[in-house]
Amino acid sequence: MKMKAALLPLAVAAAIFAVSGCSTMQIGSRSAKTAASGSAGGANSHDANKELAHCDAPLGTIAVTEDTASPWYNILANQYKLGPTTPVLKLIIQQSNCFVVVDRGRAMNNMMGERALAQSGELRGSSNFGKGQLVSADYSLTPSITFSNNDAGGAGALVGGLLGPVGALVGGSMHSKEASTLLTLDDNRSGVQLAIAEGSAKNWDFGGLGGVFGGAAGGIGGGYANTAEGKVIVAAFVDSYNNVVRAVRNYKAQHVAGGLGTGGNMAVQGSAQAAAPTGNGMSLYQAQEKLNRLGFDVGQPDGKLGPHTRAELKKFQMSRQIPATGELDGATVEQLSR
């Protein structure tokens, strides 16, 4: 019994080293990287994640906008002790070559500061900080973490059953971490949402070792546990971004009859779109849309029977050899419905 008791610490130590490896400094360690690795310079990238989507040419310029007042960001910063997601997202975007990134974060303050210095006359004359040089952001990408589970299940029973008492100690400290993220792509000129994509990832870590072994050994597992949440969140964002790229590669704009932002086609009672003066099943708004499609230009549909609409109605009626009343009567609706 004494011999077995003496051997237990050695077995525990062996288990620790099997999990953690040697604690030597290694520059560029693969284990310290996230799913967003390497670098990007212009259209070139180095050591990018092989699973990251890539475009042959950029689709436009983009700015990453992070809502620091949202609940998920508060959890990210205060509970997980993680920083903004914008730096890693900008790396992912530039490596993909699907968009050209323009900075609208804190670096923007520096840009404006340099311009203020130029305007004050403090900069050299050759500095060339005149107006009209900033590039507009065609699109905005907004990140959100919709779900992050710090303890999505342990593996103690499985490992313990395979490796015995020491295995149970190590296995009991293994926990999976899951994250689900969303990326929203908006058109900055119109405010229209172009694409939205969910992403997810799952990872295993050994976060409980510090509590199990304590003392000097505690730092081994605890240090990795402090970064495991960040790694799985980054992996989920890579998945989200890949899904955004898949959505926009074959982008097809949504079309609303009459144009975007003109009232829509789900009209409520009393609105111009819902008005059907003749009670024949076609509103004047719908008739204006059909006349435009047929080449009788009534201008922007508004559901009103103005002089221009009356004139085009008469032209249409004459072309169909029906009485040119300038009204949306039954005979006219019948012809427009064909």
Automatic annotation (TrEMBL):
Which InterPro entries does the entry link to?
Answer: Peptidoglycan-bd-like, PGBD-like_sf, PGBDSf
Note one Pfam family from the annotation.
Answer: PG_binding_1
- Which controlled-vocabulary keywords does the entry list? Signal
Q: Can the keyword Signal be found in this entry's annotation?
A: yes
The answer to whether the entry has keyword Signal is yes
The record ties this protein, via PROSITE patterns, to: PROKAR_LIPOPROTEIN
> Where do the Peptidoglycan binding-like domain residues begin and end?
285-336
Q: Which Gene3D superfamilies match?
A: PGBD-like superfamily/PGBD (1.10.101.10)
Under the heading SUPFAM superfamilies, the entry gives: PGBD-like
User: Where does the UniProt annotation place the signal sequence?
Assistant: 1-25
Question: Could you tell me what this protein is called?
Answer: Peptidoglycan-binding protein
